[in-house]
Amino acid sequence: MKQKTKKAAKKRFHVSPSGKVRRRRTHQAHFNARATGNETRHKHKDEQIADSDKGRVARLLPYS
Length: 64
Known about the structure:
Distance between the termini: 18 Å
Radius of gyration: 15 Å
Number of strands: 3
Number of domains: 1
Shape: elongated
CATH class: Few Secondary Structures
Helix content: 25-40%
Order of helices and strands: HEEHEH
């Protein structure tokens, strides 16, 4: 039987061409007017997931 991809995880994570799993940073939704431009730009860069989470995410995304 084929494994199913967890759709919620597919929307939140993406795998880079080199195999790194990336995620979106938090604290971007609102209350950003008071933040500096540097801080706002920094928030919009994707972040690599922690080593402790790699196995868990790999199970959720079997074909990535």
